[in-house]
Amino acid sequence: MTFSLAIVGRPNVGKSTLFNRLVGRRLALVDDQPGVTRDLREGEGKLGDLRFTVIDTAGLEDATDDSLPGRMRRLTERAVDMADVCLFMIDARVGVTPTDEIFAEILRKRAKHVILGANKSEGSAADAGVLEAYALGLGEPLRISAEHGEGMPDLYGALQPLA
Ligand code: GDP
Ligand code: MG
Predict the structure, then answer these.
(1) Mean pLDDT per 10-residue run, the chain (163 residues)?
(2) Ligand closest to CA 58
(3) pLDDT of residue 70
(4) What are the residues whose beta carbon lies below 5 Å from ligand 2 (ion)?
(5) Phi first, then psi: what are they for 129, rounded to 5°?
(6) C-alpha span between 132 and 148 (Å, rounded)
(7) Confidence at residue 65, expressed as pLDDT on a 0 to 100 scale
(8) pLDDT at position 26, please?
């Protein structure tokens, strides 16, 4: 059995960077698949021996960061409804923003299963943001660095029971 993972969160937290890391070169094949919308990118994810579908909410880039416009909310809800598990990412270097709190509320109400990822966690500049993330009420944040590939064993540990 396999599962689907939606990567959600406000613009610029590193969702697409992680998507690309999980999907790797298989993305080229994914683009040819039917039913893939422009705003939700879907790929075949790989992490250790796990194989799963990854959904990137790719259409958020033009949304503003200090509010949660209807489009961002609708796109996120669509991804959440499609997925067995959501990886909710925040930028640990910035800390928790009001927009992050709105995402957290959507996820608490709607998602089947949530993993909280505190991204950009390489180095001590992220420590304060990681601590803030506990207040989101979504469990223990995973320290990850999508860009540097750090924290992938912890992400594996969180996903493995779902496989
Ligand atoms: P998205 O809008 O959530 O899809 O974010 P992107 O994946 O486009 O990344 C936004 C910016 O954050 C880019 O400049 C990335 O290079 C940067 N970024 C992503 N992951 C990390 C990370 O782990 N550490 C740091 N320092 N920067 C990152
Ligand atoms: Mg993106």
Answers:
(1) 93 93 69 57 94 87 65 89 97 96 94 97 96 96 97 98 93
(2) 2
(3) 81
(4) 15-16
(5) -65, -35
(6) 22
(7) 58
(8) 57
Q: Is 147 annotated as a binding residue?
A: no
Secondary structure (H, E, C), 20-37 = HHHHHHHHHHHCCCCCCC
Whether residue 119 has its Cβ less than 6 Å from ligand 1: yes
Residue 27 is predicted with a pLDDT of 55
Determine the residue type at 122: E
